[in-house]
Amino acid sequence: MTDSVVRELEISRLSTRETDFEARLESLLCWEGVSSSEVQQRVDEIIEAVKTRGDTALVEYSNRFDRLSASSMEELTLGAERLRKAFDGLPEDQRNALAAAAERIRAYHQHQRPESWRYTEADGSVLGQQVTPLDRAGIYVPGGKAAYPSSVLMNAIPAHVAGVREIVMVVPTPDGVLNELVLAAAHLAGVDHVFTIGGAQAVAALAYGTETVPRVDKIVGPGNIYVATAKRAVFGQVGIDMIAGPSEILVVSDGGTNPEWLAMDLFSQAEHDEDAQAILVGWDAEHLAAVESAMARLLPTMEREAIIRVSLKARGATILCADREEAVALINRIAPEHLELSIEEPESLLPDIRHAGAIFMGRYTAEALGDYCAGPNHVLPTSGTARFSSPLGVYDFQKRSSIIHCSPDGASQLGRTAAVLARGESLTAHARSAEYRIKD
Amino acid sequence: MTDSVVRELEISRLSTRETDFEARLESLLCWEGVSSSEVQQRVDEIIEAVKTRGDTALVEYSNRFDRLSASSMEELTLGAERLRKAFDGLPEDQRNALAAAAERIRAYHQHQRPESWRYTEADGSVLGQQVTPLDRAGIYVPGGKAAYPSSVLMNAIPAHVAGVREIVMVVPTPDGVLNELVLAAAHLAGVDHVFTIGGAQAVAALAYGTETVPRVDKIVGPGNIYVATAKRAVFGQVGIDMIAGPSEILVVSDGGTNPEWLAMDLFSQAEHDEDAQAILVGWDAEHLAAVESAMARLLPTMEREAIIRVSLKARGATILCADREEAVALINRIAPEHLELSIEEPESLLPDIRHAGAIFMGRYTAEALGDYCAGPNHVLPTSGTARFSSPLGVYDFQKRSSIIHCSPDGASQLGRTAAVLARGESLTAHARSAEYRIKD
């Protein structure tokens, strides 16, 4: 498949010293996953069909889009027993690795459980917040080439740790192909049922429920443009996670890490798909050149050479900056999904880093470790959204209720304040409701 | 304005015993704030115009929609000094009430600050999560009849407590009318600048930035259908809060609360607007009738009688149920924005309540107290979205970064697991990146 002639490595080279640096950086980072109005319209139709015709529409779409010949949703449903069987049937090394990963992911996420809290005021009034899990979560897992068991663990385990009562997974099976690793991961992660459906129709089914698919409270997990468009459309009816853009990494190197290690770290990002983005930042020009050489040398040995080559050419870059301070400014400007600090004393940089999905510290923490088994979640904010969002976590599967219990004295005191403000807003029923509780 | 003849109170009466109860409840709760494709298209045009023409477009739209004659954004900008002046100019009782409310809201939200955490494993690897505030938040405040200073406090104070560096507020001024209470609240809440712009154009300006309006990381605050549609469109480019539906309350009474108090509590919800929803649930039929009588008696004395009457007729209800257990089931089915537990020993019900935005406990805790000054946020999940979302809080203005710092031993151990899983996913660059860190 790949060209047998070793070709030059094509990757953008930027320097913060160049006058057009800001413009070049902007164009490098630019990404808008816009749905065409055609996609939008098809998705709206699919959602409407599933909403009104339920299972019948689901089966029709699955047969059409995934080239199946199912006659009912029963044929597109897998129970807990089937998932366990998939796990038991794995080769031993995969079974152990998957179990070890699940165990570490679970342990890490246990630390994220927010606590209910309350406090009592001098007049006896109680204020607080009660934390409760969602009743039901839906996990979308892509089928086909991007069917990743690690994704199942990362999406479902936080829901399980949160105490979600029922975890439903959907995964399309194009041409009927089931991925046993994906099912095994579902077993380990505490998934209750699997429906082998996908696309906008699966999102609609989870959002509104059908005869067979239960309505969920939140839908998480990555998908193609149809899935993303459907998630945006049902947002509000159910909760959704962030709509993910292509995956990216920013590696900052001080020049002390083996160039081959860094080359492979960049490749591990670039191999995801042609839109993935791998950027190396450093202040040692010779070292950047050494990493480029290592990339050129190693690239022909990669199984996914073709994808890596396209991704590096289209969206990859090496950026030469003046020093550590400039590197920090670049980090906060880019707000990367993955940040690898391949430097001496990475801790010293940490307080200055304001925006990053996950921070991989030191020369040994390859980003790939975080993708699978270090423990933290690999579902991370992409395309600069680390400015305002967080890794997927237990907190995404819980919600809070405010608690207010006024004592008679507290209600009397608060009533006076509330009444003044309510009258200032011309809401007199509010005022009178508060005033009933004022003591004379 | 209001009819001087005392009319019958029109409100739906439901009973869980009726065979069509579930269908009637469903239709009572049904609410879909769907944007027409016409609204969608106008919003898309406005966003595109602001994105490409910046301030010029902003000024044009503001002049057109708010009937202004501004010649530049400078005329639509208010600095900190103007906000302080608004606060200083208030009548003393309003100034004191606003300051007291701000103080209590701040105190409550201080309890919500999540902490960064980390732990060290036996092999020296460190895992954790670092919590940081957003750089910049945008607060949307509706103008005209729904200009509520309490909304400013509730949206901006959590951002301020979170440590957001810059808080920008937008508020339209139809016909140039400024609300001094709103500006005073902005002063108290720590708002840095105010732009007197609104609608989809204000949302677009906050999402993409213009020459004058800085791009923010998250937009919060309620608005009309254009604002809601624009927020949905820019979601992903910036963070947004939930898209709010009409406000609602579910009052559960055991029969021991003064019917007039309950009538006024229901009115305080219904007076918001014609779509607001006030529902009373109880197992004492005589008591429900007594509350209805109180409503009929008090309604003609209300300043916002007309709105209350329409809202109660269209969306209000009393629901007779069998007992406390059925009431709890109804609460969880409805997942109300506001839940008033006007019962003896409300604490005993709390563990069974799975979904509610805010819970007002006991006979003294009027919901109106929570709207203004009890402390908890009044921005709450509506239309059943308490199933999966939370009150606005400090956590909405912060985000987390995962921290992973593997020791050489840790990286070696994890590398073996990661390599097996990566090869299982055919991602060999991932595997080789991990394998470089395995010790021989």
TrEMBL record, chains A, B:
**Kinase recorded as keyword:** no
Task of the protein? Catalyzes the sequential NAD-dependent oxidations of L-histidinol to L-histidinaldehyde and then to L-histidine.
GO biological processes:
L-histidine biosynthetic process
What PROSITE patterns does the database record attribute to this sequence? Answer: HISOL_DEHYDROGENASE
What lineage is this protein's organism placed in? Answer: Bacteria, Pseudomonadati, Pseudomonadota, Gammaproteobacteria, Oceanospirillales
Enzyme Commission number(s) from the entry: 1.1.1.23
Q: Which organism is it from?
A: Litchfieldella anticariensis (strain DSM 16096 / CECT 5854 / CIP 108499 / LMG 22089 / FP35)
**So which domain of life are we looking at?**
Bacteria
- Family recorded in the similarity comment: Belongs to the histidinol dehydrogenase family.
Can you say what this protein is called? Histidinol dehydrogenase
Q: Which residues form the active site?
A: 337 (proton acceptor), 338 (proton acceptor)
Binding positions for NAD(+) per the UniProt entry: 140, 201, 224
Q: Which UniProt keywords apply?
A: Amino-acid biosynthesis, Histidine biosynthesis, Metal-binding, NAD, Oxidoreductase, Zinc
So which cofactors does this thing need? Zn(2+)
Give any GO molecular function from the UniProt entry. Answer: histidinol dehydrogenase activity
- Locate the residues binding Zn(2+): 269, 272, 371, 430
**What would be one Gene Ontology cellular-component term for the protein?**
cytosol
Q: Which Pfam families match?
A: Histidinol_dh
- Catalyses which reaction(s): L-histidinol + 2 NAD(+) + H2O = L-histidine + 2 NADH + 3 H(+)
Residue numbers binding substrate: 247, 269, 272, 338, 371, 425, 430
Q: How is the cofactor bound?
A: Binds 1 zinc ion per subunit.
According to its UniProt record, in which pathway does this protein act?
A: Amino-acid biosynthesis; L-histidine biosynthesis; L-histidine from 5-phospho-alpha-D-ribose 1-diphosphate: step 9/9
User: Coiled-coil ranges per the record?
Assistant: none
